[in-house]
């Protein structure tokens, strides 16, 4: 029996976050340039989005470019930006066909202007879609996001528009880039690395973490379904004891 048949479709995570890692190693293993790994990684993104649409995952967030990735060699940064631009433009029609809304989080203004413009355009043309929201984390880091939220709240306190005792989890959430998205129940990281790498630190307070040795360009929807089956075997207690659940 395949992993899809083992899924309990009544207990799917609403939101899955993915750290897509291992593109460079995948390419190197084949004696190819790193960029080839990223290009192949796009095929995995497409298959995983379709897998999410197929089974009914409402939110998928992928870590496509971190704040720290700006420190990579300029040729690789440029290639990633070009790949991003060509992919979103090529996929706009398919996103619409699959009823997928494109969203982006991160310090988007630091992206090249063409990237900003094309992202805004594809987000606009897919904005009415409702089956799944695909969020690209771009020039994103959780520490940047938390600091930005903190500054916005501090500003409101300074201007006398907000009292200290009004600062709650809900108010903080509302200042995050993910304010319209539920916290992920499941986070997947490929390539055998066991780190969170500055991804959604606030939002992942109670997220189930799943690590696989599979390199991102080899990761396909059957691997996604396997991760969800594993997630469904876990007991999520949120600090309570087993007997208190249900
Ligand atoms: C990590 O692998 C991957 C990235 C930093 C980029 C991810 C980008 C893509 C999959 C393509 C663009 C995505 C979209 C949504 C259009 P790595 O380079 O760190 O691999 P390594 O650890 O083996 O070096």
TrEMBL record:
First and last residue of the signal peptide: none
Keyword Transferase recorded: yes
EC number: 2.5.1.-
Cofactor descriptive note: Binds 2 magnesium ions per subunit.
GO molecular function terms listed in the Swiss-Prot or TrEMBL record: ditrans,polycis-polyprenyl diphosphate synthase [(2E,6E)-farnesyl diphosphate specific] activity; magnesium ion binding
Swiss-Prot/TrEMBL GO biological process terms: polyprenol biosynthetic process
Organism domain of life: Bacteria
NCBIfam families for the chain: PRK14830.1 (NF011405), uppS (TIGR00055)
Protein role: Catalyzes the condensation of isopentenyl diphosphate (IPP) with allylic pyrophosphates generating different type of terpenoids.
Assembly and binders: Homodimer.
UniProt xrefs under PANTHER family: DEHYDRODOLICHYL DIPHOSPHATE SYNTHASE 2, DEHYDRODOLICHYL DIPHOSPHATE SYNTHASE FAMILY MEMBER
Protein name, as recorded: Isoprenyl transferase
Species the sequence originates in: Pedobacter cryotolerans
Taxonomic lineage from the root: Bacteria, Pseudomonadati, Bacteroidota, Sphingobacteriia, Sphingobacteriales
């Amino acid at each position: 029996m395949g992993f899809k048949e083992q899924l309990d479709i009544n207990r799917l995570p609403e939101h899955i976050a993915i750290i897509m890692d291992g593109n460079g190693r995948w390419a190197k293993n084949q004696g190819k340039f790193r960029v080839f790994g990223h290009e192949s990684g796009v095929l995995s993104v497409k298959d995983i989005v379709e897998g999410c649409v197929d089974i009914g995952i409402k939110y998928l967030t992928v870590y496509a470019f971190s704040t720290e990735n700006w420190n990579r060699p300029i040729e690789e940064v440029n290639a990633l930006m070009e790949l991003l631009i060509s992919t979103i433009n090529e996929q706009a029609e398919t996103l619409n066909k699959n009823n997928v809304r494109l969203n982006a989080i991160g310090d988007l203004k630091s992206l090249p202007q063409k990237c900003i413009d094309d992202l805004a355009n594809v987000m606009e043309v897919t904005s009415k879609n409702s089956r799944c929201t695909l969020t690209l984390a771009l020039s994103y880091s959780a520490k940047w996001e938390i600091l930005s939220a903190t500054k916005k709240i501090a500003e409101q306190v300074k201007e006398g528009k907000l009292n200290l005792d009004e600062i709650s989890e809900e108010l903080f959430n509302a200042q995050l880039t993910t304010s319209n998205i539920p916290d992920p129940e499941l986070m997947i990281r490929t390539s055998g690395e066991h780190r969170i790498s500055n991804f959604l630190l606030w939002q992942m307070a109670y997220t189930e973490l799943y690590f696989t040795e599979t390199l991102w360009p080899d990761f396909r929807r059957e691997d996604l379904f396997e991760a969800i089956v594993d997630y469904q075997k876990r007991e999520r207690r949120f600090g309570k004891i087993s007997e208190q659940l249900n």
